[in-house]
Each structure stands twice: as C-alpha cells, then as structure tokens.
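> forwarded from #structure-qc
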C-alpha cells in the first residue's frame, strides 16, 4: 500500500477528554506542557528523533530523598529479596549497586501492596535491569486483589497506588504460567495510576494463544477515572534479538484503558496467537497488535513522537490493534513514523499495519504510516 504522509496543519493536544463514567461529564487529563525530559544515563531510551513535549503529570518523579535504597554499593547487595521487600513497603525506591550496570534476577514476583504509598516510584538510575529469568512475571499491582489489601469499596476506580517506573530495564519476564491474571509478561497493573519513563522492555513473553490475553511487556486495566497511562522515552524490543512476544500486544495491552505514548520506540515485537478476537472456529484465538493491543469502549490511544517499526501480527494490526466496541474511542497519531509492520490477515484499508474500529479513521498529523 502507498504510504500516508500527513503534513497539513492540524493541531492536536495530547490531553484527550475522557469519559469519567458520569453521564454528561468528561475529564481532561492535562493541558500544561513542559519540555521533554530525559533520565540520567538514559539517552539511548525511546526515540531520539521524538520532539513531543511532555505534560507535567508525565514527567519524571523526584527521587532525591528515597524511602528505600536497594543495595549497599555492590552488585551482590542488590538482591531479588531486597527488591520484593522494598516494593511491598512502597514509597520512593532507588538502587545503590555500584558504578556498573547490574542485572537482578528475580526469584519471585515483586508485588505492590495497595495500602502503601500512595506514591510508589521505582527508579533504576539507568543502570538496573530486573530480570524474570524467563520464569516469572517481574512486577504486579492489582487494587482489586484482596491478597494485596483491598483499600476501597470501588477498587476498580481508586486514585492509589500511584505507581511510576523510571530509568529501568525489564527483561525476560514470563507470565505464561499465570491463569487468573494473564498477560503482562513483565508488568501487570490494575487500578490506581501508572506511568513509565526512560525504560526498556526486552525479551518478555506472555501466553502464546488466547483471544484477549496480551501485553508481553505491560498489561493495564481500570485506571482511575479513565486517566491515561503515560509511556515516555521508552523502548519496547529495539532489535531482532530483544523483541517481546505474546498472543496479542507484544508491547502494550489493555482493556478500556487509554495510553499516551510519547517519544518512544516499538520494534521487533510480535503477536503470535491465531484465530483473532472473536475467535475463529477451531482456533485458540489471538494474533493481533504486534506492538500495541487495545480493546474496550471509550478510551484513547495517543502517539506522539513515536516510532513503530518491524513489528508483526499473525492476524490483524502488525503495529496497532485498536477496537472500540461502541465506537466511542479515538486513535491519534502525531509526529510519528510507523513502517514495516506486517499484518498476517487483516488491517484497515489505507492504514498499513493498523486495524481500527473507532469513531472514524485514525487522526494522523504530520506522520508517516507505511
């Protein structure tokens, strides 16, 4: 198909009005913008050509006075046990593992407790990799899991915990053995508020098949009042050797959750299920959204300054699968470049690598889709 290159002067702001669940009422996540912010030592994260501004609430968190420091200055002092304990305690978490980069192999999944924080920040300083060792999910937060303390009667719509992951690498996470809370090979989140900055996701996996399971890197459900998950200056995959793989959504997956993705990169991620959603007879389902898989009703996927290239899907949307069941959702693409994202079976005519059912076609501004 011929590339789409949109260069006319349409102005979009990244703060998209989202339904709050109250009839006739909308929430506007943000209107204030700040200059783009790069984390210390993280210049190789995300899209170096991305120039989109970063809203105040998507900015990097201040970790100058941490509540917990993992490690005492040596790589050996930075252990899985220390990570699990610090995450369970909440607050601002940093690392002191020595001058060189370090990989911490997780012996169990680190789990957020909902009565800690409410602000929880995990900052790797650009030198820390958390590895699931191809055996387990790395990080889990679920406001509706009573084992993690149920703090409100409306767990699916509460403003805490407010979880930020920044200046970290998540590698070799594996949630294939998870049945109750599937998907999210590296990170699984439900409820509260969540953002990711200056981070990498490499070689993470979740279930190979299934119609709605997804998010080899990240799966998110039920964000507070429909506010978006921010993904800023981050890389998913990045090379042929580091791609993330799942039935759907090699990078991101959600149901009814909005994402605002800024100055980031998705490459070499794969959706390997087969049979799509709804499931074709005689198949296990899945295979859509090589980089990003979104489903639900009223939600928005907003991309700005982002590259999505060399991803693939066995079924639909080699780059993006976006379905708004009641057609009230919107897909916005600004100052971005999508290329070489083959869809095995179907995509929306005129938008290579994208399958979209929403309130009209994607809104594409100053971007290339080819």
């Amino acid at each position: 198909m011929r590339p789409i290159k949109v260069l006319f002067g349409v102005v979009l702001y990244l703060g998209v009005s989202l339904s709050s669940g109250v009839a006739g009422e909308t929430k506007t996540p943000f209107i204030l913008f700040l200059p783009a912010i790069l984390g210390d030592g993280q210049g190789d994260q995300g899209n170096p050509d991305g120039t989109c501004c970063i809203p105040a609430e998507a900015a990097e968190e201040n970790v100058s006075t941490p509540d917990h420091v993992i490690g005492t200055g040596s790589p050996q002092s930075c252990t899985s046990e220390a990570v699990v304990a610090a995450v369970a305690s909440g607050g601002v978490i940093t690392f002191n593992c020595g001058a060189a980069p370090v990989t911490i192999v997780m012996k169990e999944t680190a789990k957020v407790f909902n009565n800690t924080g409410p602000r929880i920040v995990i900052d790797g300083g650009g030198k820390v990799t958390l590895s699931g060792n191809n055996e387990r999910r790395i990080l889990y937060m679920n406001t509706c899991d009573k084992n993690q303390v149920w703090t409100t009667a409306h767990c699916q719509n509460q403003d805490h915990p407010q979880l930020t992951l920044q200046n970290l690498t998540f590698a070799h996470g594996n949630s294939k053995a998870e049945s109750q809370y599937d998907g999210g090979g590296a990170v699984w989140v439900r409820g509260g508020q969540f953002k990711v900055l200056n981070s990498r996701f490499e070689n993470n996996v979740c279930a190979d098949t299934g119609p709605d399971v997804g998010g080899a890197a990240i799966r998110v459900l039920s964000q507070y009042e429909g506010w978006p998950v921010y993904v800023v200056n981050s890389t998913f995959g990045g090379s042929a050797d580091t791609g993330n793989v799942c039935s759907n959504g090699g990078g991101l997956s959600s149901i009814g959750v909005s994402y605002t993705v800024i100055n980031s990169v998705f490459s070499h991620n794969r959706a390997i299920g087969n049979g799509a959603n709804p499931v074709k007879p005689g198949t296990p389902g899945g295979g859509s959204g090589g980089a990003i898989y979104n489903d639900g009703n009223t939600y928005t996927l907003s991309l700005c300054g982002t590259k999505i290239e060399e991803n693939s899907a066995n079924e639909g949307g080699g780059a993006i699968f976006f379905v708004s069941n009641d057609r009230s959702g919107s897909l916005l693409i600004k100052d971005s470049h999508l290329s070489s994202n083959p869809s095995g079976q179907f995509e929306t005519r005129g938008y290579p690598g994208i399958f979209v059912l929403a309130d009209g076609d994607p809104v594409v501004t100053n971007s290339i889709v080819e």
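QC bot note: The chain is about 5% helix and 35% strand. The first strand starts at residue 4 and ends at 6.
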